[in-house]
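ok so for the tutorial part 2 we go from a plain amino acid sequence to predicted structure tokens. step 1 is just haveing the sequence, like this:
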Amino acid sequence: DRLKAEKRLPADEVRRIAVAVADALVAAQAKGVFHGDLRPASVILADDGSVRVTDFALGKVVSDYAAKAMAGGGGPKPKVAMYRAPEFLRTDLPDGKSDLFALGCLLYESATGDRHFPDGYRASCGEPHKGYPYHDPCEAHGDLDPALSGLIRRLLAPNPADRLPDAAAAAAALLGAAFEPANLLRPGEQP
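step 2 — the prediction. this is what the tokens look like for a chain of 191 residues:
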């Protein structure tokens, strides 16, 4: 509700909320569970300022999802397309790195106030290859905090292998830990 009302949150507030979300993902992943449907409606901001992540039902245990998908039965899909990692659209198996993509979407929306990615970025998500450069999802938002936009770029890497290794690394990056920058295309460059 707050994101709907304010559209764009201050960078410090974005970080505080995102660290709590990343910590919840760390706890879930430690039990072999990924969220699978992370979106603003799954993040509850309590009156006391605490953050709760809800609705882990879609995530199930990763091995159960993988077994279904490998058997050709597919699996559940996230409800909101914007937060759906590119691997949900391909035959790749989603996992905890899919949650990192959704966390990047949450960061993007809350830091920019924008729910739409540039067309070039979405086109980069079709058939990504590890290490290939991709269009900058933050290209229209040059006023973003540089560290936050750098993290958003890494979390929104079209190929899961190019994202941060896990939710713990995302939490650490939100708290200031260094990480490798994203491999982005220069403006006008094609993949």
